[in-house]
Amino acid sequence: MKHYIGTANPMSGQYSAQASFTARHFSWKCDAAGVATVTLNRPERKNPLTFDSYAELRDLFNGLRYATDVKAVVVTGAGGNFCSGGDVHEIIGPLTKMSMPEMLEFTRMTGDLVKAMRGCPQPIIGAIDGICAGAGAMMALACDMRFGTAATKTAFLFTRVGLAGADMGACALLPRVIGQGRASELLFTGRAMTAQEGLNWGFFNALYEGDELLAKVLALAADLADGPTFAHGMTKTMLSQEWSMTIDQAIEAEAQAQAICMQTQDFRRAYEAFAAKRKPVFGGD
């Protein structure tokens, strides 16, 4: 969960301002409302990932744990596609020449990107058009919500290159989203899930026309950024932690989480706005 740290707070120097972050291997921007957009932007190759972009994305999402100026994140791709996965020439080729310890460092780095996305407190929304394959599919899966178009094709195609479907947390995350049987089919066969299947199975929250996808997702992100961001961070934390809890443990954990949220100024602001019949203005504290 995330709490607003003002400049007057003596700890403010320990919290990074990510809104002004300058990316080298993808596009990054953050508006005044705190809605950030990550755009994978190698459209001529359908936005594949490289060793450098993996690491930079991992570091960005890890940094967002300490950023109080970013309230919601949109992840998308340029040129009508999301991401074609790891670059065949810049990643796959070099991997075939690496030693086992070197390969393990790479696979741990890719998994660290997913862990960083799941661990950052801001809601992450995927705007996913066109090709969404391999590591790109895992980035989409790591988002909190996903929106696509009729043209979106999502493939966990690791088996197509002689690898296990167990990559970057796929065997843990995908069954929780679409069910064990459906996940097993996609991970064993590597076939593309159609957009309609993704919608029917719960992978996508909704499908939009291609020319309205990003605008719709940005509007949702703006609504979230305008809301009680400390409470949003708590929701994301509990959604993750409760996977390994019993029902009794989850109910107790949520009782404690909600009691913490009831101590925030946002809870008081919401009550006062309701009493005054006006829209609350949340501050994230």
Describe the structure.
It is a single chain. The chain has 285 residues and is of the alpha/beta class. It is built from eleven helices and nine strands. The strands form two sheets. Strands 1-2-3-4-6-9 form a six-stranded mixed β-sheet, with helices on both faces. It has a three-stranded mixed β-sheet with strand order 5-7-8. Helix 9 (229-241) runs antiparallel to helix 10 (247-261). It is globular and about 60 Å long. The model has no long low-confidence stretch (mean pLDDT 93).
**Secondary structure tally, helices:** 11
Q: How confident overall, as mean pLDDT?
A: 93
H/E topology pattern: EEHEHHEEHEEHHEHEHHHH
Specify Rg, calculated over alpha carbons.
Answer: 20 Å
Q: Estimate the strand proportion.
A: 5-15%
| Structural class label | alpha/beta
Strand order of the largest sheet: 1-2-3-4-6-9
| Uncertain residue segments | none
First-residue to last-residue Cα separation: 11 Å
Q: List the quaternary state of the chains.
A: single chain
Write down how many β-strands occur, each being a DSSP E stretch of 2 or more residues: 9
Question: Main sheet, how many strands, which sense, barrel?
Answer: 6 strands, mixed
* Helix share bin: 40-55%
Structural shape: globular
Q: What's the short version?
A:
The protein has 285 residues and is α/β, with parallel strands linked by helices. The protein is built from 11 helices and 9 strands.
List keywords for this structure.
9 strands; single chain; 13% strand; 6-stranded mixed beta sheet; 285 residues; alpha/beta
